[in-house]
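Objective 1b of the project was to move from sequence-level analysis to a structural picture of ligand recognition. The entry below was assembled by the postdoctoral researcher (A.K.) and checked by the PI before modelling. It contains the amino acid sequence of the target and the SMILES of the bound compound, 2-oxoglutaric acid.
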Amino acid sequence: MTIKIACLQLDIAFGNPNENERRVEREIEKISKNHPDIIVLPELWTTGYDLTRLDEIADEGGMRTKAFIQKLAKSHHVNIVAGSIARKTDRGVTNTMYIADRNGIIVGEYSKLHLFQLMDEHLYLQPGEEMGLFTLENTQCAGVICYDIRFPEWIRVHMVQGAEVLFVVAEWPLPRLSHWRTLLAARAIENQCYVIACNRAGSDPNNVFAGHSLVVDPWGEIIAEANEEPCTLMAQIDLQKVREVRKQIPIFADRRANDYIAAEKNFLKKS
Ligand SMILES: O=C(O)CCC(=O)C(=O)O
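Corresponding predicted holo structure:
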């Protein structure tokens, strides 16, 4: 089964949800003419990293964003992995991804677990409490956000529960572009899954972002990659390839989870 993906590598207007919604609406309108099955947006696409103004600009309960992407998904009959947004909750603001299917139904949500101290996330945001598993096009998928890709054990927990495609949404800065490419390829190889990674383009008052959205196949080959400019990256993925690679080198059967847990417990007991 093949699935056509479009990653919208947007430049994000700093702290301006109205303008960002206009951009996303326009881009989705344009790209829908190519009939993608799944459209992916970057991290914090409504506000960017305007963290000091979250009181003003974060989305109360994610209500506005959910309604916005549900409407677009339904009217263009396309699945949307809607990057992430700053969401106000009872326990503070979370960095939250929503997923809408072709009928405009929210089929998943995930809030970033690992907060990135280098960009002050820990001062303004609360970590998520749930996993990022969801089903799209009859395929088990996982979604994580930016810094999360530095934590292979978190992604592994999703993969052992059957995920075949990993969506990564990001605002990854240019100085660490080489980490971005290497970490994404490593996550694909070690989990024998497709990795669909949508980064933002452009800059904000503190950072220049890397772009280079990319799609990696389960053998670790990069099958599509953007440059640093705003653009839409298109790719076709074939799920048969996941099954073939997993059959050829059966890492999920060969892994020794109980030994890892015992070794870690032992270490913790001693330390
Ligand atoms: O891990 C990194 O180098 C970048 C992470 C990041 O920019 C983020 O999580 O927003």
